[in-house]
Amino acid sequence: MNSHVFDQAIALELQSDGSFAGHTSAAYANMVGPFGGISAAQMMNAVLMHPDRLGEPVSLTINFAAALEPGPFVVQARAARTNRSTQHWMIEVLQKGETVLTGTAFTALRRDTWGVDEDTMPQCPPPDQTPHGKGPMPMEWIKQYDMRPIAGAMPLVWDGSGDTSLTQLWVRDNPPRPLDFASLTALSDVFFPRIFVRRATLVPVGTVTMTIYFHADSSQLQASGSSYLLAQARAQSFRNGYFDHTAQLWNEAGVLLVTTHQVVYYKS
Amino acid sequence: MNSHVFDQAIALELQSDGSFAGHTSAAYANMVGPFGGISAAQMMNAVLMHPDRLGEPVSLTINFAAALEPGPFVVQARAARTNRSTQHWMIEVLQKGETVLTGTAFTALRRDTWGVDEDTMPQCPPPDQTPHGKGPMPMEWIKQYDMRPIAGAMPLVWDGSGDTSLTQLWVRDNPPRPLDFASLTALSDVFFPRIFVRRATLVPVGTVTMTIYFHADSSQLQASGSSYLLAQARAQSFRNGYFDHTAQLWNEAGVLLVTTHQVVYYKS
């Protein structure tokens, strides 16, 4: 039996009505509610575990409608359309009958084709020459990741300075765990809010929507093993209460595994 | 009464069961099924017209589950969660009882905050010094847009050359029409497939999912009027049957209106 804290956190039980029962994880708690990445991984896991699933994840969109309270939740995942080699999912997560997360996913049987990564991995020092991050990080979920910032780390001085929101870091599960679609889903949300980097100012924030595009198939994830991922994120616009970011995750061999985007609420 | 071809195409009628009835538009036909942007605008319009709607669009994700057949369709839009100033929508479009599109949207009341565009508009010649695009474009929907390519135009010779997928163009409705959320939704899908630029090779393609982040509110769209938008798109990865692209649309004044992403199926 796999006893990694991540596997415990995403565990779901199939119910007689076809829904899945899960429970929030204290190990992945954020300031308010859970780490968004673990909610996304729980949602993804409902699709991965679903008896009707066809193929592997190509995209996932998750919308954070309300902060989950500590306790049980229900995931309803429905294959809205199944084609010959593709499938479209509608997903809803509920607590006490109220919707807390919504989402859609696209899965597909993939086959070998011509391909190229147009976004190549930036030149960075290797993980073993990149020290761990410093600074006060009281959130529980941070402890479940080994993060080694290269650029755009969490500010140590909140002085309102900054002219770019670019962050680059090496990251993997702590303790190490072989990469799969569920853990890659969670890792896609590992970035702290871009406004903290751009302004060096602490303001209330919360992700409202995140989309993940999986470029890798399961064999490429297996080949990544438990090595570090190079994760990079940058905002494109901060405007009237919401900013976005666009991000990429490569494995140590330089294969682009994921491109991912999100919109974050901020008060300012 | 507004008789612009776009308004005719996105027209919906509220039904007694709360759903909306619409009809595909011959003017926006693509090679197979409708132009994806017009389907996205029809879906967006159901939220915009919905009597329960709170606030303005901040994000929309649309998944293309099947090519729509010419004829009527039904849009089911449901406010899955309404908070004090935000709202989460689940949307499904059906033809003959079968799901053809799925989606989610996030709307919000926005207020003035500190902000900055980190992605500034690239230096480009103005629209009136940029000639119209050339080349054979048999699709009906192309006629509904005034497109003026700056870089990465549709190849005139299909010789397998190319080393970047970057496209930049000026674009607006043809005839001109004041910008609003519905038309901006459609314009966000105006890019032809990145693989055509990167490889100068014609292969079967089809968008499977698209996400749009609206950075502008309605007053900023109004200020854009019917001027041109600078639209830019670039792929990040082509792999095993699917590629992505990441794109931005600025108005002529240089305000970033939208960042948008999609995944496209390709055969190769």
Low-confidence stretches of chain A: none
**What does the overall shape of chain A look like?**
globular
What distance separates the N and C termini of chain A? 47 Å
Strand content of chain A: 35-45%
Structural classification of chain A: mainly beta
- Kindly report the greatest chain-chain contact and the residue count on each side: A-B, 63 and 63 residues
Average predicted local confidence, pLDDT of chain A: 96
Topology:
Two copies of one chain form a homodimer.
Chain A: H1 5-10, E1 13-14, E2 20-23, H2 36-49, E3 56-64, E4 72-82, E5 86-95, E6 98-108, E7 116-117, E8 145-151, E9 167-173, H3 181-187, H4 194-199, E10 205-214, H5 218-224, E11 229-234, E12 237-239, E13 242-251, E14 256-266
Antiparallel strand pairs in A: 1-2, 2-4, 3-6, 3-10, 4-5, 5-6, 8-9, 9-11, 10-14, 11-13, 12-13, 13-14
Helix pairs in contact in A: 2-3
